[in-house]
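Sequence in, structure out. Go.
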Amino acid sequence: MTNVKYVLSILGQILFYYSCSISLTFFNKWCFSKFHFPLMVSFFQMSMIGHVVWFYRGITKPSGKDPISWEMFFKRVCPTAIAASMDIGLSNWSFMYITVSMYTMCKSTCIVFILIAAIIFRIEKPKLLSIVVIGLISLGLFMFTYKATSFNLFGFILVMSASAIGGVRWVLAQILLQRDSLGLSNTLEFVYYVNPVMVATIMPLALGMEGSDMLLAPNFILAERSQQLHIVMIVLVAAVLALLLTFSEYILLSNTSSITFSISGIVKEIAVLGLASTVGGDRLSGINMGGLVVCLTGISLHVYLKYQSTKDNPVAKVEKRALLDSSDSAEENDL
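Output:
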């Protein structure tokens, strides 16, 4: 009965993650077609998440819990938060230039950067087949973008930069969430400490690049009261979806393995691409579809290799924890 409850709990978390992620992807694309300030929207989203978390934590936080040290805050939390902020900001910005299909395909390459970052941070051991995985996903991306009718170079650079930064983001987040000794294994505590740095990172970019243009936009400050209210409601809905997605991602990451998270991502990407093609009207050529298959094959191979390594080695999780601890010790010795 306990196993059944656990499986149902994980399935519920995955469905929650799907609902939030897919909804936010299409809503953001629609939102930025109406309100052309993706960095400002990202700033509002992060600010709202911060206020909600601070309020909720103030009510439920148990007394007597010591805060994390400043050393850990600057050494562990800040890099994770900066990476998360840039990932979200650049991803939203790219929606101004590329389709949902292109966005989803490019973001799926994040697993390559996660693998590279995991090797750099000594969470994963380098293997020959890892090169095959990277090669397949890279080839698939090339085929998917080859002579794509909706290809935009600037948008492509934005989303691929977000994907690369996202790889670092998720590896750093995994370290914080899955190492109990750091005290941030609780999702609420994690978001509480990470969010202020995320807001501080995106704020100067948003205000510097879009602040004055937004204030002078005819559909915002200079618009009628009803139109202003409409824009505010759109931004608020986007912020609520972003808040729910943030919790769904970190809850799933903290309660499952990277294999489960990766498989969930593959199914979600297929669903998004299917919806983008049928509902959004995105057009894909034969070679683009072939690139999708090649890319998903590479991702599936990576997931299978992860599964086999865990299946063949029952202590793989313990060894992974040891890698995390040894990495931490090595960094501390360097200080």
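Check: The radius of gyration is 20 Å. The longest helix spans residues 2-34.
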